[in-house]
Design goal:
The protein has 64 residues and is an all-beta fold. The protein is 0% helix and 70% strand. Strands 1, 2, 3, 4, 5 and 6 form a six-stranded antiparallel sheet that branches.
């Protein structure tokens, strides 16, 4: 759960990918705004930055 000025950075090892689901609230993921119910596949990135959250609850899956 993130809110306000909370920020999180998650590093992805080379060759890994991720899936992020916003369960509720809103948040920016690598600069892209998402809201409750949104999901995003992430590949080809070395890190995932979560910022500008508003009562956000997110699930992040780090996948092979």
């Amino acid at each position: 759960m993130l809110d306000g000025k909370d920020t999180v950075t998650h590093r992805l090892e080379p060759g890994r990918r991720a899936f992020l689901h916003v369960a509720r609230g809103s948040i920016e993921v690598n600069g892209t705004p998402l809201k409750g119910g949104d999901g995003v596949k992430i590949s080809g990135e070395s890190e995932i930055s979560l910022a500008r959250a508003a009562q956000a609850e997110v699930l992040l899956f780090d996948l092979p």
